[in-house]
């Protein structure tokens, strides 16, 4: 049998190799399609005390489900990841329809601090985790907490201002890619 | 109801509220071996639905039983989660 001219045997071998390659490709696609690993991407845009909780609670719980979780923090959402600011997030008393006081009263100096202190006390009494605990827990359980690079610069923050383990140097395109791959996408 | 399983470990999350009972349960069950049963004791009434939801949505664990009881006047919720793989 000559090796430099195509023979019936050679064509069979090439065909068999092609079939094998395609079978492997199908098996890989099937494995990918049946992969029940879920993914969630949250975009966190708010930095008030009450708005810091929902993304952190959902992220740490999703991590307990074994999901891959990304939380992309932008604008005031950055303050959640800011080591100093995260310990001093405020509940806004003004314009908050759930606060049991009129806006004229809520706008008085010191009202935000008072409302925040009241909520912090309630949180302690209720056995609810602190924001810092939820951040530590999220990082510990593999949640990817990302800080938007454009808003880091806009707010004149430094990369060192954030908790260790926070991902920096990411932007809208990164967030979009994660969202496109996710089963759950939320904007908070 | 007869207890047909042996408890391997007990996790006390009394006083903690959502999402800590779930997160702590996950952390406590990870180092266990297949076949082990984790008992979770909580005072969070939401844990009845949440532990069930977590067990349903998570591979490798099975919720065997849930019990409501009382401890010194406080409602206590007990969950029995088996690690299956």
From TrEMBL, chain A:
Give the keywords, sorted: Coiled coil, Membrane, Transmembrane, Transmembrane helix
- Name the residues that span the membrane: 56-78
UniProt-listed Pfam families: DrsE_2
Q: InterPro entries this protein is in?
A: DsrE2-like, DsrEFH-like
SUPFAM superfamilies, alphabetically?
DsrEFH-like
Instruction: Report whether Transferase shows up as a keyword of the record.
Output: no
Ranges in coiled-coil conformation: 12-39
User: Which stretch is the leader sequence?
Assistant: none
Q: Which PANTHER family match?
A: CONSERVED WITHIN P. AEROPHILUM, PEROXIREDOXIN FAMILY PROTEIN
> What is this protein called in UniProt?
DsrE/DsrF/DrsH-like family protein
Q: Which organism is it from?
A: Natronocalculus amylovorans
Mind giving the lineage of the organism this protein is from?
A: Archaea, Methanobacteriati, Methanobacteriota, Stenosarchaea group, Halobacteria
TrEMBL record, chain B:
UPF0033 domain boundaries: 11-35
What Pfam family does this protein match (any one)? TusA
Q: Which InterPro entries match?
A: TusA-like, TusA-like_sf
Q: Which domain of life is it from?
A: Archaea
Q: Which family is annotated?
A: Belongs to the sulfur carrier protein TusA family.
> Protein name, please?
Sulfurtransferase TusA family protein
Q: Can you name the source organism?
A: Natronocalculus amylovorans
């Amino acid at each position: 049998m000559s090796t430099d001219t195509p023979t019936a045997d050679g064509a069979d071998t090439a065909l068999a190799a092609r079939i094998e390659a395609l079978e492997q490709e199908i098996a890989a696609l099937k494995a990918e399609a049946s992969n029940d690993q879920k993914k969630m991407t949250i975009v966190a845009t708010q930095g008030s005390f009450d708005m810091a909780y929902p993304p952190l609670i959902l992220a740490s719980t999703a991590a307990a489900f074994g999901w891959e979780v990304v939380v992309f923090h932008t604008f005031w959402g950055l303050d959640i990841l800011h080591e100093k600011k995260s310990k001093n997030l405020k509940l806004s008393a003004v314009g908050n329809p759930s606060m049991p006081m009129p806006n004229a009263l809520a706008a008085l100096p010191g009202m935000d601090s008072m409302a925040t202190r009241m909520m912090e006390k309630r949180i302690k009494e209720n056995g609810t985790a602190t924001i810092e605990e939820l951040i530590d827990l999220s990082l510990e359980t593999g949640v990817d907490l990302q800080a938007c690079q454009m808003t880091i610069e806009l707010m004149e923050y430094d990369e060192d201002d954030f908790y260790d383990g926070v991902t920096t140097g990411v932007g809208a395109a990164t967030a979009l890619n994660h969202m496109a791959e996710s089963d759950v996408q939320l904007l908070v | 109801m007869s207890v047909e399983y042996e408890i391997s470990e007990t996790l006390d999350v009394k006083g903690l509220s959502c999402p800590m009972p779930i997160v702590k349960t996950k952390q406590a069950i990870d180092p266990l071996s297949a076949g082990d049963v984790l008992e979770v004791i909580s005072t969070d009434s939401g844990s009845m639905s949440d532990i069930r939801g977590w067990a349903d949505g998570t591979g490798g664990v099975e919720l065997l039983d849930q019990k409501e009881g009382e401890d010194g006047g406080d409602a206590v919720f007990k969950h029995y989660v088996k690690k299956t793989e």
